[in-house]
């Protein structure tokens, strides 16, 4: 494995002293930075920053403005960044900075049989959505006798 530290694997004990909700003072941190411009075609839309998976906790900034914090290890996290970005079509580059912590109080929930690796694990996306859109919905289906019909209820 290539990386900046030794792999930590355990299936019995935590790889740090157990003292919930505290985590070790020596908490390795990764810092990431990249630059991007928003296309002119995204004008009038909401700009979202979407992390597909980060472990264990992280802060995100756009152009020095804090835009989000998450500690749902390896679960998606999404932040509205429209007001923190330079205008769409501008030649001025936006700066995305991310600080990832190896341990968080959420690490106590993750003592499983796995590799304890931290960092950005999947893609980071910029999304342009309409000003108004449906984001939280639930479908429930009830199948009829012999599966010959179904009732579908949608909650938004």
From TrEMBL:
SUPFAM superfamilies: Galactose-binding domain-like. Keywords: Glycosidase, Hydrolase. It comes from the Eukaryota. Pfam families: Glyco_hydro_2_N. Coiled coil: none annotated. GO terms for cellular component: beta-galactosidase complex. Belongs to the glycosyl hydrolase 2 family. This is beta-galactosidase. The lineage of its organism: Eukaryota, Viridiplantae, Streptophyta, Embryophyta, Tracheophyta.
